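hey so u asked for the seq, here:
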Amino acid sequence: MAPPGEKKDLYEEARKKAAKGDFNRAIADYTKLLEQEKDRTKRAAVELQIGNAYYKKRMYNKAYEHYADSLRLARKAGDKHAEASALGAQANAY
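ran it, structure tokens below
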């Protein structure tokens, strides 16, 4: 598992790539981060970001799948804010 600082750096790199429209590389970075992260709330946030990248690529079914994963993780973590974010994202992708 990567140290917390490395995970934060990877997350920021993925966000920058997504902001520049490089969604494939952002998804790759987020996926790598997802493999390293154990915290359910953080995993929910990463799943949401993967969903957002797919949404921007107009791949709505893939986006919806990741939003559903985000929702599942948020509920397991008991994080109502993350749950609401995932539900809103699902509605947009639907």
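The mean pLDDT is 93. The chain has five helices and no strands.
lmk if thats what u needed
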